[in-house]
Amino acid sequence: MNSTMIAEKRQKRQQKVNAKRKHQEQVRKAARYPLFAFEPNDAPPAFVAAVREAVATINFDDRAVFAAWERSVYQEVRRAGWHSASRFFAALEKAEHPQATVALVAFYGHLGQEVFRRIPEAVLLQYIPINDVQFLPDGQVIRAIFRSLRRAKGPHGTVYYSRHQPTVLVDGEKKVVAFSIHAIQRICDRVYPRWRNYLALGDAFGLFDECQEFETCDLHGGQVGFTFFENCAKGFWNEAVAQEILGSDFREDQNYAVRVGYCPAEVEGNFIKAKTFLCPGYGNTPEFTAILRSGLPYAEKQALIEQSRSLDAQTIWTNHDCSLLKWFHDHGVPQVVGPILHSDAVTVMFLPGNAANMSLIASAVRVPH
Asked: Which terminus of the chain is less hemmed in, N or C, by CB atoms within 10 Å?
């Protein structure tokens, strides 16, 4: 046997050893961290495949990605289940730890954002925001639960609507609330500007899929449309918006909902389909009419109209200024409703600011582990 053949034999033997070690390492990691259970539901198979491929590259032991406290929680999920692991967050809350809420949001959001980061944006945008995936610990596994809007063919393009099929009355007939793709994109851009990120996508998709409380309204010029609200989540920015608008009338122990905006719409068969989305104060909205009908001097009206043109969620958050919404509220167009005992309006957990970098947020959380 010549030296070349010996070298080749040794190389093959080493390859087998390396493959065995790699398999053993994968088994070892699987024993330490929870496995993923996929629930595709009605999601496009290619979207599910892209997510599966990205999940396969997740390494919980990578200290450049996952903080020590996150690894500990995931290990506890694998060892004893989520019920036991969740006590970590319950203990933080009980101790009134200043980062208790941030830690829980970071935990839920970080893994999903890491998965999204591993999917090319051009691929991801083929499927979102009309599809979504949630990563939720359940027992000793992490469930990847896919959600998709239902769709139907209409005379002017595809109609997207919720599985709950919420309805409103239009001329005495029940019509299912639906959206055009243009309206969906407008809502995402104006209300959830970071909707391409995991957490914000969940909020945006939740609005279309989970909100069941809509009201018809007549927009300026007689255009038919509908409006909707979102529940205020304790400790989050929409609760701060409600507090600033209501002022001394705000009650900490009460639940409120804030107006999201308006959708000019048209009836298509059994649907009332949103054509686009208008933030409060945009042209043709009741807020716009309130400005026109106010007794303000012309220059002040124009100033309010100009200010309204740039109003969206990002502007409100960046400027920390709800004065325009408060003006609308105080002049006959409610921006906050409540207190509410129960509502089917969607509850939003959107974290403004740099929520895109969940790894940075998670690593910045200083909690015991």
From this structure: N
Kindly tell me the sign of the dihedral angle through the C-alpha atoms of 6, 10, 11, 12: positive
DSSP state of 247: G
The string of DSSP letters for 117-148 reads HTS-HHHHTTTTTTEEEEEEEETTEEEEEEEE
What is the tens place of the pLDDT at every residue in 317-361? 788 889 999 999 999 999 999 876 544 444 333 333 334 444 444
Sign of CA dihedral 199, 200, 201, 205: positive
Cα(78)–Cα(29) distance, integer angstroms: 11
Q: Give the amino acid at 199.
A: L
- Of residues 351, 256, 352, 260, the one with CA closest to residue 312: 260
Tracing tokens 């740039």 back to the chain, one arrives at 310
Q: Are strands 150-154 and 141-148 parallel, antiparallel or unpaired?
A: unpaired
List the domain boundaries for the chain: 23-148, 181-270+277-352
Crossing angle for the helix pair 298-309 and 286-293, to the nearest 10 degrees:
160
| Residue 318 in tokens | 């960046």
Q: Is 203 exposed, middle or buried (0-12, 13-18, 19+ CB in 10 A)?
A: buried
Alpha carbons 352 and 191: distance in angstroms, whole number: 11
pLDDT tier at 259, thresholds 50, 70, 90: very high
Confidence of residue 29 (pLDDT cuts 50, 70, 90): low
Q: How many CA atoms lie within 13 A of 163 on its CB side?
A: 11
Cα 124 to its chain centre, rounded Å, is: 15
Residue 168 bridge partners (DSSP): 175
Helix (H, G, I), strand (E, B), or coil: what is residue 313? helix
